[in-house]
Write a structure and sequence with these properties.
single chain, 98 residues, mainly alpha, 3 helices
């Protein structure tokens, strides 16, 4: 793919990261409202999701720094990580009472 496609892909990644940052903030706010006993369990999940988000950002950096002809090979792992983070966020948000 071309440099333009790489740039568009990276813009899409940055946009998703911003969306997930907002969702992580919502999740953190929900965790802050639960009782102390449940909070420990949920905080572990928040930390796990933040770690996955950091891994996504690192993969995006690798794609950005990669040669024009090799960046596509790095996108498969990123797509898989996106799916894991998305489902993890949804699951965590759904599991915490409002």
């Amino acid at each position: 793919m071309s440099h333009e496609n790489k740039s568009a892909f990276l813009q899409k990644v940055e946009s998703r990261l911003k969306e997930w940052d907002a969702e992580l903030q919502i999740l953190q706010a929900k965790v802050d409202r639960v009782g102390a006993d449940a909070r420990v369990k949920y905080l572990e999940k928040v930390q796990e999701l933040k770690q996955k988000r950091g891994e996504l950002q690192e993969r995006a950096r690798q794609i950005k720094d990669s040669a024009a002809e090799s960046w596509e090979s790095l996108t498969d792992g990123l797509e898989s990580s996106w799916s894991q983070l998305k489902s993890g966020l949804k699951s965590a948000l759904d599991s915490i009472p409002d």
